[in-house]
Design brief:
3 domains; five-stranded parallel β-sheet; alpha/beta; Rossmann fold; single chain; 35 helices; about 725 residues
Length: about 725
């Protein structure tokens, strides 16, 4: 993929299409490690260039007089890199100190437990060095005096020394009697004997509760004057000052009395954050050969208006990088990567908005209906968009831009343009979340039937130039999905090159008799109509009448059934209410005449296989000129039975007040009578067909007998 920063610079209007990644790519990518939302710990990860400052910081505090103890503050807002800064200085600190102790105040609750845990941890670290065992013992005894019970620190559990509980309490009581002051003097003397300092790091203090922050700083104030101990405390100045402010005493003044040295980490420049975000995206996508279609014309606006405003610091950068990598792996290149990158920013940094998107799918993806007034639209569509903006709080403008850039169908609800349903095909073809099927795939990770049909149609379209491969692919699909997949080919109508037209139309017309009806709707047309419609749309892309006529001449000999040939010459010709006049009238008449000759020459066995047998024979007889031979319907019972079956249809209707769809069987009785010339001849043929019928035909002949008995359906039935 082209470097994203370069695209932002050049802004070239190109769209890259990608298919789903292969299994091999998945296996190759599994070993790739994604950096979690953790501070850096090695110099090579220092993308902000803070290592020199961190090393200088370490040298500075080691150069201070730590003989009477010092407290150093590393100050910065959440996510500003305080822990990373300390980690970069840690190497120097460890080389020039007895120990660097990470004391985690999160693990302890209450002042007494905090105090004893602190001294226990300090003693445990010193005890590791055998020469400092006495110093460790003194410090540990001092810590015991603050509690009647022993709470174990993470390192160096000291209850292993044994002793009964009664003996322990007696010892503690005796120590308290001797006075805390005396014990503190012993600790100070023991620490003063050290040749190197002990460094204690207290991080993330600002993430504690207000009461816990106060207890931690009471601890620091208590131990701040211990000789040869350097305390490095990392926190957000504003948060801690607020927590320490009480009874009219500003927290700022309290801090100034405790900190001997403070370094304020500067905010990361906006340009550097921008660069780091782009680098993180590129790195996260680097191992995915096909992360999804990439539209360079939309990317600059989406990045600058939706993604960039939500990322404030390096912690945000790392969180975002991890989330997009996980999303791309999950979605397997099926969705526009521009949309994925934008929605992952929303999901990561505005979770309340993301949850509302789950409830706003219709509002975000329902196009404007030009047949209805704006007042007639369901009000919940606009209400869901308004609520989406409402929950975004101070990021309302970002969400407005997200709607305009990602969900154009919803733009009208916030004063933008209206987009009609004719845009659905474009959005689906580009795999944009503007289409409901694509958005649901992103949200639910489950492809709906519409999206599955689209992806199959996309695969079929890629093969359309190869007649054999195109036919093989379509016939490999489950029969109950074939109709929907063929219908979805219309999405690519404006992308069809001329070389795909002839093989595409030929294959579709030869499939017409094999597409089963899977719909139970009153309003959805039968499969043959849908296949013919797609074939017509393919053929009309040639535009010029001569080109369409030439293609028709090439296609007709390859079409295997008279029914499909009739469909072709009908939609290119001039038949009333059916023809689209795509070729000259003379050529259309000649195609029709040649076709009627084929019908007259067909055997009864060949005719019986036609999917639209009644229409084929009816058109051939009705439209024959006086110069043509009369169409003789072979007097063959098998053909008559096939005609009766083909003449059977059903009327679908809804009963008043019911959602149930009712099916009422009918026969095209008038067409049958016209075809055979009289009802008497029709009756004779029916009786011959009845003699060869099977039990499966019993319902058909029961319907036939109703017509023979004079029954006819009501006009309004």
């Amino acid at each position: 993929m082209k470097r994203l920063r370069d695209i932002l610079t050049t802004g070239k209007n190109k769209t890259r299409k990608n298919s789903a990644p292969s299994n091999a790519e998945d296996q190759r990518d599994i070993g790739k490690k994604t950096r979690a939302d953790n501070p850096i710990s090695i110099l090579s990860d220092d993308t902000l260039g803070r290592a020199p400052a961190a090393l200088a910081f370490g040298e500075e505090i080691l150069g201070l007089d730590w003989g009477e103890g010092i407290v150093v503050g590393v100050l910065g807002a959440w996510g500003s890199g305080k822990t990373s800064f300390i980690n970069l200085a840690r190497g120097n600190l460890e080389n020039t100190s007895i120990a660097v102790i990470d004391f985690n105040p999160w693990m302890f609750s209450g002042a007494e437990q905090l105090l004893q845990s602190f001294f226990g941890e300090l003693a445990a670290q010193l005890r590791v060095r055998r020469s400092l065992g006495d110093v460790a013992e003194t410090i540990e005894n001092y810590g015991d005096a603050f509690s009647a019970f022993t709470w174990l620190p993470v390192i160096g559990p000291w209850v292993a020394r044994g002793g009964a509980a009664t003996k322990l309490f007696k010892t503690i009581a005796e120590r308290r009697k001797s006075g805390i002051g005396t014990m503190r003097a012993k600790v100070e003397k023991a620490l003063a004997s050290l040749q190197k300092p002990v460094i204690v790091i207290l991080d993330d203090v600002d993430r504690l509760s207000t009461q816990e922050i106060r207890e931690v700083f009471k601890l620091i104030r208590l131990v701040a004057r211990f000789p040869n101990v350097i305390y490095i405390v990392a926190f957000d100045r504003t948060r801690v000052e607020e927590a320490l402010t009480q009874e009219g005493v500003p927290g700022k003044d309290y801090l100034e009395k405790i900190l001997q040295l403070a370094i304020d980490l500067p905010a990361v420049p906006a340009a550097l954050i921008r660069s780091q975000v782009l680098s993180a995206i590129e790195e996260s996508l680097s191992d995915f050969e096909n992360p999804g279609p990439f539209d360079t014309s939309r990317w600059p606006d989406v990045f600058e208006e939706v993604i960039r405003p939500l990322i404030r610091n390096m912690r945000d950068v790392r969180r975002y990088a991890a989330s997009i990598r996980m999303a791309v792996r999950r979605l397997r290149g099926q969705i526009s990567i521009v949309d994925v990158l934008a929605l992952e920013a929303i999901r990561t940094f505005l979770p309340a908005v993301y949850l509302q998107i789950l409830n706003s799918v219709d509002g975000l993806t329902t196009a404007s209906n030009t047949g209805l007034s704006r007042q007639a639209e369901p009000p919940y569509l606009k209400e869901s968009i308004e609520h989406l903006i409402e929950v975004s709080g101070n990021q309302a403008e970002v969400i407005r831009r997200m709607i305009l850039r990602l969900f154009p169908a919803a733009a009208r609800h916030i004063g933008g343009s209206h987009f009609g349903a004719d845009w659905y095909a474009h959005w689906l073809r580009d795999r944009r979340v503007a289409h409901q099927e694509v958005l649901r795939l992103y949200l639910e990770s489950v492809a709906g039937t519409g999206f599955k049909a689209f992806t199959d149609a996309e695969s079929a379209f890629a093969l359309m130039h190869d007649k054999k491969a195109f036919d093989s692919f379509l016939r490999s699909l489950d029969s109950d999905r074939l109709e929907t997949v063929i219908s979805s080919l219309e999405i690519f109508e404006d992308k069809i090159p001329p070389e795909k037209v002839v093989p595409g139309v030929t294959v579709l017309l030869n499939l017409m008799s094999d597409v089963p009806s899977t719909t139970q709707s009153l309003w959805i047309p039968r499969p043959g109509f849908i296949v013919g419609r797609v074939a017509y749309r393919l053929l009309r892309t040639l535009n010029a009448a001569d080109a369409i006529e030439s293609a028709t001449r090439e296609i007709l000999p390859e079409v295997r059934t008279l029914s499909s040939k009739l469909a072709l010459i009908t939609f290119v010709g001039y038949r009333e209410n059916a023809g689209h006049k795509l070729i000259s009238e003379i050529s259309a008449s000649q195609f029709e005449k040649n076709w009627r000759a084929e019908v007259r020459a067909a055997s009864a066995e060949e005719l019986a296989k036609e999917i639209d047998l009644l229409q084929v024979l009816g058109v051939a007889k009705r439209e024959a000129s006086s110069e043509e031979s009369t169409l003789e319907i072979p007097d063959v019972p098998e053909l008559t039975l096939a005609l009766l079956k083909n003449a059977q249809t059903e009327v679908k209707s809804f009963a008043f007040g019911s959602r149930a769809l009712h099916h009422s069987p009918r026969l095209h009785w008038g067409s049958l009578t016209d075809l055979f010339g009289s009802e008497q001849e029709l009756n004779r043929r029916i009786e011959q067909a009845r003699n060869i019928s099977s039990k499966e035909d019993s319902e058909l002949f029961a319907l036939v007998d109703r017509y023979l008995g004079g029954w006819r359906p009501d006009v309004d039935d």
